[in-house]
Amino acid sequence: MITIVFSHGVKDFTEWKKVYDANAEHRAKAGVNVTGLYQSVDDPNMVTIIGNVPSVEDFNNFNSDPELISEMQKAGVTGIPEVKILNKVE
């Protein structure tokens, strides 16, 4: 299991959230388990999603899925997302 920290700007958080919520099934099918959704204190249109994914390959497949890319554009994602892929250290 790996942890993903995924941050990006959006044009309008409320509109983005509607598309994000509607995409829950797609995330679940890809094995993405979101453990937290955050807005920046300084900019409510800067979003960070933290979650777990079974493997780097699973995340890369999900992240490059044309359906996800289309949904992100529809949701008003701005700029290039910043992604951190982490292994938990025991």
How would you explain this protein's 3D organization?
This protein has a 4-stranded antiparallel sheet with strand order 2-3-1-4. It has one domain: 2-Layer Sandwich (Alpha-Beta Plaits). Strand 2 and strand 3 (about 45-55) form a beta hairpin. The chain is α+β, with helices and mostly antiparallel strands and about 90 residues long. The longest helix has 10 residues, at about 15-20. About 40% of the residues lie in helices and about 40% in strands. Helix 1 (about 15-20) packs antiparallel against helix 4 (about 65-75).
In short:
With 90 residues, this protein is α+β, with helices and mostly antiparallel strands. It is 38% helix and 38% strand.
CATH fold descriptor: Alpha-Beta Plaits
| Percent of residues in beta strands | 35-45%
Distance separating the two termini: 13 Å
Mean pLDDT: 92
Using the alpha-carbon principal axes, give the shape: globular
Count, helices = 4
Q: Considering DSSP H and I runs of 4 or more, what fraction of the residues is helical?
A: 25-40%
Keywords:
90 residues, alpha+beta, four-stranded antiparallel sheet
Task: Note the topology.
Layout: E1 2-10, H1 13-22, H2 24-29, E2 33-39, E3 46-53, H3 56-63, H4 66-75, E4 77-86
Antiparallel strand pairs: 1-3, 1-4, 2-3
Helix pairs in contact: 1-4
